Amino acid sequence: MDFGIRGKTALVCGASKGLGRGCAEALAAEGVDVTLVARGAEALEKTAEEIRRATGVKVTTVACDVTTPEGRQQVLQACPQPDILVTNAGGPPTGDFRTFSRDDWIKAIDANMLTPIELIKATVDGMIARRFGRIVNITSSAVKAPLDVLALSNGARSGLTGFIAGLARKTVPHNVTINNLLPGQFATDRLQVTIGAAAKSVGKPVDEVFEARRKQIPAQRFGTPEEFGAVCAFLCSMQAGYMTGQNVLLDGGNYPGTF
User: Signal peptide span per the entry (predicted)?
Assistant: First the structure.
């Protein structure tokens, strides 16, 4: 299927590895020029060069901390008018909520709620004026099924979800959709962190907890960044223009509910 977005421009955050990279690769494969954002310059440039070789699209890189005003300014100078925006920030620390300070909460909210909102605020009016825009926020399955060790993430990402629920209905008349992608357990560095924290809390070896987690997933495996990116690319397609304000769960069937 031709997604109809060849020649569009995309700004993809957290794009040097993991789910962000999966999204960038899938969009580039559709002929979208991409601006990749991440903190680590070396990994970012390596990813950019691999995407260039694989797809031939224009790839721009910005190595910065997008959760800061200065970082966002750099990003928006490099890509001021994207047609597609994929927001993504590393999850905050895991642990018992009793151990988190006010500063911990503010950092989590800044990274996982306010930064996406600021990026949307800076780019959505241009999308509305051009009558095309696709915004995808990478959040977490914990929004739908919270985990106790992810207290900071649960709170901050749920705040973003509530904000998007209202905004998405205002932009869709202009062919600008906003949706959230909720990853479950994917084979990324973040998975290693969360499983490591869980293993520590119960006093078990990491490998044992890792295997137990895998077996609990109905799909009997962890997800891949490539299949996550494919869903992101569809949400950014011309065909997805009637889909907005949705929380799309990708978790291998792990969430047991009907709704």
Answer: none
